[in-house]
Design brief:
- The structure holds two protein chains of two kinds.
- Chain A is an all-alpha fold.
- Chain A has helices at about 5-10, 15-35, 40-55, 65-85, 95, 100-125, 130-140, 145-150, 155-175, 180-184.
- In chain A, helix 3 packs across helix 4 (about 65-85).
- The longest helix of chain A has 26 residues, at about 100-125.
- Chain A is globular, with a radius of gyration of 20 Å.
- Chain B is mainly α.
- Chain B folds into three domains: about 1-55, no CATH class; about 55-105, no CATH class; about 115-240, Alpha Horseshoe (Serine Threonine Protein Phosphatase 5, Tetratricopeptide repeat).
- Chain B is about 75% helix and about 0% strand.
- The relative contact order of chain B is 0.06.
- Classes of the chains: A mainly alpha, B mainly alpha.
- The interface of A and B includes residues 139, 168, 174 and 175 of A.
Chain lengths: ~180, ~240
């Protein structure tokens, strides 16, 4: 499969493409992370984060897919190690410096967007199941009647009251995140 | 207050604000930093919900393939560990070790080294159904009891626990297995209660000890508060390299 086919497959939720991405690119990510204080399980976490970043935040594929994956993974791993050990010496960062400035800038943007997504996602995960479902249904454009039926709300007014309470709680959780000030 | 703001934000995003209302809104965006941030959060929340709907299947796919990969990694590790040499290799190795130990113990009387297993104390796994315990945490604890540690970690990673709480319990699972590096990796720096502080400090000490990080261990022990729970404090002090 070509890079573009893999990228499109990833975006469209094609399982074969995700497997192919693992087969093709995971070994080099694993090698790099293993030689920089990590192990295969760490590489797996980073690789998954990387694929999610590409899925959610990369709209068009302007670079070589393998290179993009490797760069995103390296940066994610460096961030993780820094966060835990508070040192920058653990990893040889030289390999990152050889990257074209434009690419670097673009990846920083993907990373920031994905961090924003993670903050929102983790805060969303703290909401009750009912809140999560309600907000998702509203966003899907379901009618008041459909939502009432699906969530067994007695009146349409309950939907609006609940929605407002859920949004407020979600906002609070987002603001409580220690990374909030880095993004907003 | 927030509800009113949210209604206003929604109207703006839908293009329903016009005339002087629109002008006032944009002026406030330019001058009121707090309002601007609140709007950015609200806009991102809407974007998040859109992304979540749009990519739900693809995300599920990535997570499921990754989880399969993780399981095969764990399986591979276990299988690797299962590849044992033949019985006579064991017997001959054991015999050699016994003979060597006998000779050495005749000449040297070493102090008995404290092992990780000697100092590890199990946490109280939140396994009981009574109370308001988190269902993921309970599920993970059950897996630990059944010695399915990978299962426990996977449940915790996919749980709705807040970041530090989740990381703490993941660290506990690794501590139970004696995987010191992973404990250090997941152990949070913050704590909500003194009880948790004592437990986290204790875990950090025993894994630093296991990793033989003398300098770091010494430094860390010197910072452990004196009002630490006695049970932990006595172990912590006994592991001090000084």
């Amino acid at each position: 499969m070509s890079d573009q086919e893999l990228f499109t497959g990833l975006k469209s939720g094609d399982r074969k493409s995700v497997n192919q991405l693992y087969t093709q690119f995971f070994p080099s990510v694993k090698r790099w992370i293993s030689s920089n204080s990590g192990n295969e399980a760490d590489a797996c976490d980073v690789f998954q984060d990387c694929l999610e970043t590409i899925l959610l935040k990369v709209d068009t594929l302007d670079h070589n897919l393998g290179g993009l994956i490797m760069l995103i993974c390296k940066r994610k791993w460096i961030d993780k190690v820094r966060k835990k050990t508070r040192t920058t010496k653990v990893i040889n960062e030289e390999s990152l410096r050889q990257v074209d400035e434009n690419v670097e800038e673009q990846i920083t943007k993907y990373e920031e967007d994905y961090l924003r997504y993670q903050i929102l996602d983790e805060a969303f995960g703290k909401l009750s199941g009912l809140c999560q479902k309600l907000l998702a249904l509203i966003k899907q454009g379901k009618t008041t009647g459909e939502i009432q039926g699906e969530l067994s709300f007695s009146t349409a007014n309950t939907i609006y009251r609940r929605k407002s309470a859920c949004m407020e709680r979600w906002t609070e959780y987002v603001k409580q995140d220690p990374r909030y000030s880095r993004i907003y | 207050m927030q509800e009113e703001e949210h209604i206003l934000f929604e109207k703006y995003l839908l293009g329903d604000l016009t005339g002087s209302d629109l002008e006032a809104f944009e002026q406030r965006l330019g001058s009121d930093e707090g309002f601007k941030k609140d709007f950015a959060v609200y806009r991102d929340m809407q974007g998040y919900l859109e992304d979540k709907n749009k990519h739900a299947d693809a995300l599920k796919n990535i997570r499921s393939v990754s989880s399969e990969r993780r399981v095969s990694i764990d399986k591979g590790t276990k299988e690797g560990a299962k590849q044992k040499p033949r019985w006579f290799y064991y017997v001959s190795t054991a015999a050699t070790v016994l003979i060597l130990c006998g000779i050495l113990s005749y000449f040297i009387k070493p102090e008995k080294a404290v092992t990780y297993a000697d100092v590890y104390i199990e946490p109280e796994w939140p396994i009981k159904r009574s109370g308001d315990g988190n269902k993921f945490l309970r599920g993970a604890a059950v897996q630990v009891v059944e010695e399915n540690y990978t299962g426990a970690v996977n449940i915790l990673k996919g749980s709705d626990l807040d970041g530090d709480e989740r990381d703490y319990w993941v660290a506990e699972v690794f501590a139970k297995q004696g995987e010191a590096d992973s404990v250090l990796y997941y152990l949070p720096d913050t704590f909500k209660t003194n009880e948790r502080r004592d437990r986290q400090n204790y875990l950090k000490v025993i894994v630093l000890y296991k990793l033989n990080k003398q300098e770091e261990l010494n430094k860390f022990i010197s910072m452990v508060p004196e009002n630490t729970r006695k049970e932990y404090l006595s172990i912590i002090k006994s592991l001090s390299p000084n």
